[in-house]
Amino acid sequence: MSHDSAPAPLTSSMGTPLTGTIRVPGDKSISHRSLMFGTLAVGRTTVKGLLESEDVLATASAMRAVGARIEKQPDGSYTVDGIGLGSLLEPEHVIDFGNAGTGVRLTMGIFGSHNIAATFIGDASLSKRPMGRVLNPLRDMGTNVIARDGDRLPASIRGPEQALPLTYRVPMPSAQVKSAVLLAGLNAPGETVVIEPIPTRDHTEKMLAGFGAEISVSLNEAGERVIRLKGQPELKPQNIDVPGDPSSAGFPIVAALTVPGSDVIIGNVLLNEHRTGLITTLIEMGGDIEIVNRRETGGEEVGDLRVKASRLKGITVPATRAPSMIDEYPVLAVAAAFAQGDTFMPGLEELRVKESDRLAAVARGLEANGIPCVETEDTLTVTGGANAIGGGTVVTHLDHRIAMAFLVLGMAAHKPVTVDDGAVIATSFPDFTALFSGLGAKFAAGASEAA
Ligand code: S3P
Q1: Ligand 1: centre distance to CA 102 (Å)
Q2: Domain extents in the chain
Q3: Which residues catalyse the reaction (predicted)?
Q4: Which of 158, 264, 276, 361 could make an S-S bridge to 117, C-beta 3.0–4.6 Å?
Q5: Is the bond into 91 cis (omega within 30 degrees of 0)?
Q6: Class for the domain spanning 28-241
Q7: Would you say 363 and 397 are in contact if contact means Cβ atoms under 8 Å apart?
Q8: Could you count the other beta carbons within 10 Å of the beta carbon of residue 153?
Q9: What is the pLDDT, as a whole number, of residue 6?
Q10: Residue bearing the CA closest to ligand 1, atom 13
């Protein structure tokens, strides 16, 4: 896949104030799930606003490999002709998920309770990430697994003739693990129960209910979410309108707050309560973010954001907020570089196993740009100031969000900032540079002379 191709360094530097109205691409979590659940329904699901990024296109290939027909229509929407739960065909080739953690983990859940064999591979980043968190509950449901040492990719699985329903307590705050178990439970007779001590994004629960599954969510005496799913439902095709991705919106939000004189409107952003931790945090830091035109589409709240350049101050970000902004810490760290005083971010242990070790990648990136920070096993403290320095080159480690976060730093810093590979951005936000250039940002291919 393209991440194995030659790296393409990219530099950003201060342009004009950022102004204009934009839309960010469709939500990545909802896009993956639309293709997957459409495959498991019988009939035609339509998806408007699908994120057309490498990660999501890898999921489309995987779903085609088990028999779904997925096509782009002339109006830009996608159709998924599903073949139905229990009827998946055995893939004829190895499935390459590239960089896509959500794609591979959720697909392992779906395939793992079907009596088919499948082999999964990924790029250098995905091949380092732990898969045991999904493979272990699958083993408990009767799936045979052969994986590289430490349960890394490449991995092969074969589901049992009849999977066992499971009661599973998710050991780490992970929507991917929760989802993989629920999706495996779809093809197991009886009730699958997932207990979630720390709430995470709930797109799987909401969307499965929309596709007609019998699924309920309650709280137990300890206040933990208990999700009950009745196995072997008949899923009904849906018409889905994918809202803008709040994780992608994080980049123009932080850019607009930190580039002096900016005033940007970002339309149609998903405002699901499990995804809005960054907005809450930036408002606490003094960010001028106004949410207008709140409305509901397809069972999700969306709204438009008006963001103006602001004087930010450092704060302590509650650790309990981490799951609702887990992908946003790199860009929050960039905002913190411009905030007066210290921003303390605890509860970051899951950042170590993202597309890169994001805690280390962020800390090294800040240091390369003269911004003081302290990294511990699971915390980051950034000491900011109005004039973040810049001038450094950041190693992205095949991590799209590291690349985008540090390009945002370059937009507002004293000196340009270079990332060693801008091509990785295609994982989640292919139009990143075009969209930012339209707002007034300045990019140059290669390393800057001043950097
Ligand atoms: C996702 C869950 C999160 C998040 C990822 C998308 C999902 O991963 O980081 O980008 O769509 O379920 P974890 O489950 O590892 O926290």
Answers
A1: 6
A2: 10-26+243-445, 28-241
A3: 327
A4: 158
A5: no
A6: alpha beta
A7: no
A8: 20
A9: 80
A10: 174
Tens of pLDDT, residues 265-318 = 999 999 999 999 999 999 999 999 999 999 998 889 999 999 999 999 999 999
Residue 297 pLDDT: 86
CB-side exposure of 45: number of CA atoms within 13 Å?
Answer: 31
Query: Percent of the chain scored above 70 by pLDDT?
Result: 98
Q: What integer pLDDT is reported at residue 451 of this predicted model?
A: 43
pLDDT (0 to 100) of residue 2: 44
Ligand 1 atom with least separation from CA of 204: 12
Other CB atoms within 10 Å distance of the CB of residue 157:
25
Structure tokens at 285: 């830091």
How much distance in Å is there from the Cα of 175 to the middle of ligand 1? 5
Largest pairwise CA distance in the chain = 63
In CATH, 10-26+243-445 is 3.40.50.11540: no
pLDDT at 70: 98
Residues with beta carbon inside 6 Å of ligand 1? 29, 102, 174-176, 179, 201, 326-327, 350
Residues with pLDDT less than 50, the chain: 1-2, 450-451
pLDDT at residue number 4:
52
List the structure tokens of 360.
């280390």
Select which of 327, 399, 421, 431 is catalytic: 327
Q: Known catalytic residue: 327? A: yes
Known binding-site residue numbers for phosphoenolpyruvate: 28, 101, 129, 176, 358, 401
CA distance 427 to 424: 6
Residue by residue, DSSP assigns 296-308 as: EETTEEEEEEEEE
Q: How far apart are CA 317 and CA 374, in angstroms?
A: 15
Which ligand 1 atom minimizes the distance to the CA of 179?
12
Whole-angstrom Cα distance, residue 155 to residue 146? Answer: 6
For residue 302, list its beta bridge partners: 270, 295
Q: How far apart are CA 196 and CA 125, in angstroms?
A: 27
